[in-house]
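WARN no homologs supplied; continuing
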Amino acid sequence: MAPDPFASSMFATVLSWLSASTVLLCLLGGILGAVLEPATARDRIFWAWIALCALALTPARYMFFQVIAAVSYPWQSIRASIVLSIYVPIVFAVLAVLAVGIPIFVAKRIAGTSGRSRMTRLVLAAVAFPFLCLLGSWFYFSIGLPFSARSVHWLHPGDVLRAANGPTYLVFRYVAMPLTPLSFPVPGDQLPGSDLALLRLHIASTYMNARKEAWVVMTAYSDLYGRVYRQR
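OK structure emitted
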């Protein structure tokens, strides 16, 4: 069996897991703090609905995958880590506000905080929020993600794919991949059956230029390269 051309070292894998665990603990702490906030029963039901819609209809799950990949990347290469440590948080924050934050903010404004018609406003906010989520998701996957992904085409493809191992792969497989519109360099009926291959091909298609994308496919999936890229 041929060795994996994009395998990570044990040292990088351990540090990636430590970084990912820190992110997960911070996320769990934020969720626990929100749950323990004093609130009425109808407010809890409303915010549970908001959380459910946000997870299912916004890019929040895919963004979590991006965060794990970003904190794993520095342990694969120090060539671009200093630049990315400044650039990625800024871009990520802007996209998160536009795609997820604004829908939540608008829903909260519709719901209001007091008044005799509070129940009516909660219902209106609950009905409007899924459509706001779909609008934010359309913006993210149609405009925000393609634009921001082109700005990282200069990264070394091997470093990027090694950052997709370990915790990044698990988050992609179980959190980000379901219900998410993903792009690939080849039609769906020609994709390999492995979830790791799907992750790598998605990264190559989304975050790399055409030359690097072809290099990734040729390096890791030579049979697929022979069937598809040579025909092109």
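The mean pLDDT is 87.
OK
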